[in-house]
Amino acid sequence: MQLTLEQPVVRGVRFFLAHAPGLVRYGSKPSRDIARDATLVDAIQAHLRRYEAAAAYPPNQAFLGHIHPDTLASLPQPWFERTTQAIRWGAHGEIMPEEEFYGLLKICDVFDLVRLEASFVQQVRSALETHPVLTPHDLERLGNGVPEGDIAADLRRNSHLLPLYLRDGRRIGAIYAAHEEDTSLAADVLLENLTCKATAVMAMRTLLMQEQVDPTAVEYLLNSGEEAVGDRYQRGGGNLAKAVAEMSQCQRATGVDIKGFCCGPVHALAIAGSLVSARVFNQVAVLGGCSLAKLGMKYRGHLQHDQPILEDVLAGVAILIGSDDGRSPRLRLDALGRHTVAAGSSQKAIFEHLVSQPLERLGLRYADIDKYATELHNPEVTAPAGSGNVPQLNYRVIAGLAAMHKEITPAQVPDFVTKHGMPGYSPTQGHIASAIPFLGHAVDGLRAGTLQRAMFLAKGSLFLGRMTQMADGVSLIVERNGEG
Amino acid sequence: MKLRGKKVLALGERDGVQGTAIAACATSAGAEIVLEVTHCFV
């Protein structure tokens, strides 16, 4: 490809999961339901998984790179009943227990919003001391905690704080509002933003450490999460990217937030690639922190089926885009797929814009893309709540287009879906679940030569913000480096 | 189904048929759209 000044490549990808069963009650759906019926807390608590179960859960292991997503197809369902070994670290990142995650929240909190009980801080400190990406300075930031009685007194006195609980219901601290009248700085909003920051920081630090990248060599960060950071005068104004840069020792970097609902990360990848291609920066990181609001989003379906509440993890991602190193997979910026305003809203039109047009531009056939990464939501989460198998719906449309273009016969559609798609395995963490979860596996396969090309297509529900009836979408092809 | 002169609630899904697409079809068949909405179930 000679159209760009510099060929951008994906130098590395890492993910992070925090097991956060104690925070499920603060997901949007559970918290609204609990406000109406406080007895729901007990039913929810009775269906929360232990850490070992979340760490042994095959979709989480696929998310963290311990197993390939295709492996899931051969595992009998329900996957949550499998009693495999709990694995904390996969090839692409870790799943952190909730106790440590609360400590991490305190470490990432620069405004004394989080106060943890002294005995709990002691317990957490010893657990975090050996963590490979945390430093003695981080442990200092944990502080000594506060007496349990102080938090109890604050809870009695005012309503501007949110108690923090473990899975078993033990209260271990609280997060405080930053302003009594500002709903943008209320405790629940700050908890959402702080968890987003912490998960993105951990993904970024893991990426820097494991890929042996000098943090000061990263010049720009693009945060693509869906949180709304800001006070009453600029709700959602951002900028979480620089907050993550600060916590990741990227001293020579600044950054900005790119907002695009669930397709924010793929938009950000295209922008990061463009900045590298134009030689504005040599290395740009794309980040996405978690979506606390989506914890327990489908919990009603899970309770109905008496299965564990599977939306009990918070996810983060960090991706490093850099100039061509001769081995890392290339971003094909010359074949970006865009769901344009004029495209309309039919699935056929959307997928023509996101899939068919980029392929035509490169003279490729549908089967030339080894793997399509689309909405990768775990069906075991969505199906019990009546939301179906979202990845499968999307793969059938792609296969249908291949059939319409006479590249396959209608009878070959199921085989195409199996070969070029994959089972959904991502936690329903908003922007995290759209295409991006496969990027780690894609980089592995493209480097090893088991893949030649993968396409990442993500969709965003713009209509949810009530400013337009439209949805959005963007796609990007990543291919094996010729000299790889 | 004859839609001419009927009132239609267009309830769509992002990963299925979106509300705007349902509304466009129903309008072209002569229906009046009284509600058009698309939901995202993930």
Topology:
The complex is a heterodimer of chains A (484) and B (42).
Chain A: E1 8-19, H1 28-36, H2 40-46, H3 51-56, H4 58-63, H5 69-72, E2 89-90, E3 93-96, H6 98-108, E4 114-116, H7 118-128, H8 136-141, H9 148-157, E5 161-165, E6 171-176, H10 187-210, E7 220-223, H11 240-247, E8 254-257, H12 264-277, E9 283-288, H13 299-304, E10 313-323, E11 330-331, E12 337-338, H14 347-362, E13 371-373, H15 379-382, H16 390-404, H17 413-420, H18 439-448, E14 453-460, E15 472-479
Parallel strand pairs in A: 1-3, 7-8, 7-9, 13-14
Antiparallel strand pairs in A: 1-10, 2-3, 4-6, 5-6, 9-10, 11-15, 12-15, 14-15
Helix pairs in contact in A: 6-7, 6-10, 10-11, 16-17
Chain B: E1 7-13, H1 19-28, E2 32-39
Parallel strand pairs in B: 1-2
Outline the structure in words:
The complex is a heterodimer of chains A (484) and B (42). Chain A is an alpha/beta fold and 484 residues long. Chain A has a domain of 150 residues: Peroxisomal Thiolase, Chain A, domain 1 (3-Layer(aba) Sandwich). Helix content of chain A is 36%, strand content 17%. Chain A has 18 helices and 15 strands. In chain A, the strands form three sheets. Chain A has a seven-stranded mixed β-sheet with strand order 2-3-1-10-9-7-8, sandwiched between helices. In chain A, a hairpin with a 5-residue loop joins strand 5 and strand 6. In chain A, helix 6 packs across helix 7, helix 6 crosses helix 10 and helix 16 packs across helix 17. The model of chain A has no long low-confidence stretch (mean pLDDT 96). By secondary structure, chain B is an alpha+beta fold. Chain B has one domain. Helix content of chain B is 24%, strand content 36%. Chain B is built from one helix and two strands. Chain B has a two-stranded parallel sheet with strand order 1-2. In chain B, strand 1, helix 1 and strand 2 form a beta-alpha-beta unit. The mean pLDDT of chain B is 92. At the A-B interface, helix 16 of A face helix 1 and strand 2 of B.
